[in-house]
Amino acid sequence: MSIQIIPARRGVAVTLEAGQRVRVINTHGQQVVDTWAFDAEDPEEFLSMEHTRGVLYKLCPTRGDTLYSNRRRPMLEIDEDTTPGAHDTLIAACDPERYRLLGCTERHDNCTENLADALRTVGIEKARTPCPLNLFMNIPVSGGGVLSSQPPLSKKGDYVTLRAKRRCHVVFSACPQDMVPINGVNCRPTDAHYEILPVAS
Fold first, then answer.
1. Are 92 and 50 contacting, i.e. CB atoms less than 8 angstroms apart?
2. Which of 36, 38, 74, 119 gives 43 a disulfide partner, CB atoms 3.0 to 4.6 angstroms apart?
3. Whole-model pTM?
């Protein structure tokens, strides 16, 4: 499959068969991509950051790590990662209330609605918004446990490749956050891209 766009501020859904891989490309180097996965047979089972942290005992998964569902079953594996390794598993997907709290007084694009829109394209009416795997998102944790929103450490063309452990729908949202610098110091969301790869032998 050719490289496909994840439009800035929007979301897309792809369906992966067991063993199939998808490469998520940070095309311009500074774009956070919120990432979810839902079991194709039962979307009530989904990729869970809480359960993954509970298995890995890590705040940030790395190459070779398996990511788990809310039923503690393997769902995805990080097959490749060319970034310095800064990804986030703590921060909830942005939503209208998040932007209101930041002072926005008008409607703002957000990852929660992007998830719902993308899931409809694969026939799922979303009932909830699980905490996403925030690829390329740099949220350092201080020694005192304080979080901060910092620009990504990734560079242009860096990518993460995910391998499906079962048939699942994967959703990507090129996060529209433009009020804090998680998408770079200019706070400007950009396109990202993805590519579905052949099953590795």
1. no
2. 38
3. 0.96
